[in-house]
Structure formats: structure tokens, C-alpha cells
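A further point concerns the way the authors explain their paired sequence and structure data. The central task, working out the C-alpha cells from the amino acid sequence alone, is never made concrete. I therefore recommend that a typical entry be quoted early in the introduction. An entry of this sort, consisting of the sequence and the corresponding C-alpha cells, reads as follows:
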Amino acid sequence: MRLKLTGSGVTCAVAYVDRKALSEKLAKTEGDGESIEAWVFENATCVFIVSHGLMTETAKISFEHAGDTKSMQHEPQSLYSVDWSAVLPDSHPGYTASLDEDAGFDEIVCEYRVLTEAGRRAPLENEDALVIYTEFESGEASFDFGNTDKLPEDLCFYQYDMYEYDPSDTDSNDFVRRVTYEQGIVGTDDVDLALNEIVANGEKLPVHVTATGETRSRVWRWVFDTEAAEHCLDFFGSKEIPIRGNELTITKVISD
């Protein structure tokens, strides 16, 4: 059984890069317009994925039954209208719990999780922070579960929210949140609605999305300001960094 997801989506990551190494790289590529996105992720000291994956409001799903000589392909359907009973085993938790006949997608195969600030640090003085945001009009991700006519009995889509926090906590030092969510770069819809991972057969599988349509990318560069004693947005420096959406958008597994 092969599960295929299609739709539009976003990726947003915050990468910390050594300032000297970044400046040297920019000097070598100055004028040629070549994207340095791959170089940034390969040389980053830290990468924090803020949002990635397909948006549930546009995502559609289709199934291909392995072993079927006719390779039967169902027409893509909205995640909210798929007949899961046709592809999920009776032992799936969604069917062993008491659900209404009109149970929605999130009640059957979706779990909403909150990420804390644990493990996220601010950049060091010698590091620049790059916020890389890419949106794509169409993309796809697929998962092959072998020669079977049913999906795994523990199949679950994960949606993460790293921004659920006490609004009265005005002393929060979460740099990643400050340079993305609080700057309006990533909105609550981007975070709340993105399909980030799935769990199947006891494993976490990232929703690696291959962009098949037009992509649009922007980058914001944060550098350490000695007078302010903190990292500040370098507006003009941001424009000097060539970043374009790659065919394979940068997605990684998010750790709890």
C-alpha cells in the first residue's frame, strides 16, 4: 500500500551559521546569484525547523494498493473526506474508541502536539541566524508500506505547535520564536495546519515534500549588535543572501 499526499505548503527553518564562514561564502558567490541554501544547511551549527509540510486545508490523499495487477489508483480526496474505513484495519485506535458516525479527520488519524522551548538556544555572538521561509504552490510526499491492502494499524498524522505558551510570560528568551512567530513570518495557520510527520509501524516519518510547482523563498539575517548586546535584524544584509526554493524542500524530523 502506497499513501500519497499532495497539496500546497510551507517550510520555515532557523539556521545558525558562523559569521566569518558565511561572509567568505557570500564573497565567493557575489554576483552570480547562485542559491546558498544547501550550503547553509550543510554548514549550520544549529537548525531549528519551525514549520514544514503540507497544509491540511489544501492537502489531498490517494492510495495505491500494492500487489494489485491493475495498480488501482483512487482519485485524490481531501483529508477530511477520505473513507478511512476502506484502508485502515479494524484494530486502528480510531475505530476502537467510541466515535460518532461523523467523526472528523483529526479524531481518527491526527494528533496535535505541543513542542516546548527545551533544546532551543539563542545564537552565539559569532553566529548569524538565518530565517529561511519557502512556500510552494504544489508538492507531494509518499509513503510505501509494502505488499498489503491496509495501512499500518498505528497510522497517525502529527501536527506540531511550538508556540503554545503563557502570554503573560513576557520574559521568555526563546530566540527562535521571537524571530519567526513574533515577527509575523510564520503565522498560526502555518504552524497549526501543517502536516509535519506521520507515525507508522512504530516509527516517526517526516513528511518530505518534493515541490512540483512554483516556489517562493525569503531569508532574514540576524547579526549580533554589540551596542544592543543582542542579535538584531540586518535588513540590507538579508537582501545580499541568495536563497531560492529547491526542488526538494528542506524538511527534517522534529524532536519532542
Q: What stands out?
A: Residues 69-73, 164-171, 246-256 have pLDDT under 50 and may be disordered. The longest strand covers residues 127-144. Residues 91 and 223 are 52 Å apart (CA to CA). The chain is about 15% helix and 35% strand.
